[in-house]
Design a protein that fits this description.
Largest sheet: 7 strands, mixed
Shape: elongated
Structural class: alpha/beta
Radius of gyration: 21 Å
CATH class of the largest domain: Alpha Beta
Number of strands: 9
Order of helices and strands: EHEHEHEEHEHHEEEHHHH
Length: 258
Amino acid sequence: MRQPYGQNFLKDTSIAAAIVEALGIEQGDKVVEIGPGKGILTSILASKDIELTLIELDKNLAAKLMERYGSRANIKIVQADFMNTALSPSLDTQKFISNLPYYISTAIIEKILTSHRWDVCVLMVQREVGQRMLAKISSKEYGYFSIFTQYFAEISKVCSVKAGAFSPPPKVESVVLKFINKRQNHPDQKIFELIKGVFTHRRKTILNALSYSLDCKKSEISDILAMLGIDPKLRPESLDFTSFNHLTSHLGKYIISS
């Protein structure tokens, strides 16, 4: 039967156990599970001495979770869209865990990483999305999302997950990643606007990519690149966050923040 939100439910209990183990749960932890679905992770988490919050969008699934866990004082069940749920500023030690829905995984990750209200996350995502977050500088997968996520978190691979581990099986493979909060200060939003703009022209040189994405004379960009010691013939994937930060300091006045 087709699921109302296109869910693919994890059925492999060994993968579920590996996901929970990677979270490194300690007694008294505050853990948030996003989209618990039929509860394969929840059943393991519920056996721990933790404060567990389950945020489930699907009303029917939330009702079933309520039937099973509603009487547990340490488990809170919230029927809501995680993207519309405020993260409490008092939960400085909360951990997140989820088999993320593919269609909104990047938005959820951005919300978590920029909230500062977390210590560790273990998240399952589509393999290609995971490859972008793990990508090294100068690789073909390296881009805006690589720089963004790696700025806020130390990211490591837990395991790969085949399509057969789900019911129904998706058309893609997945990967489980662990994120550890770097506790970074929020940079000027213009830095990420500049990075995003440049990578829409990733096949061009950094000089031309900046020229196409900014309303700025190429001669001025060339002078700034020379001053910063950045080869104008480099491609965007050859630059790290620090380089983009320096470029933003000099070109920020040309960036219209969204």
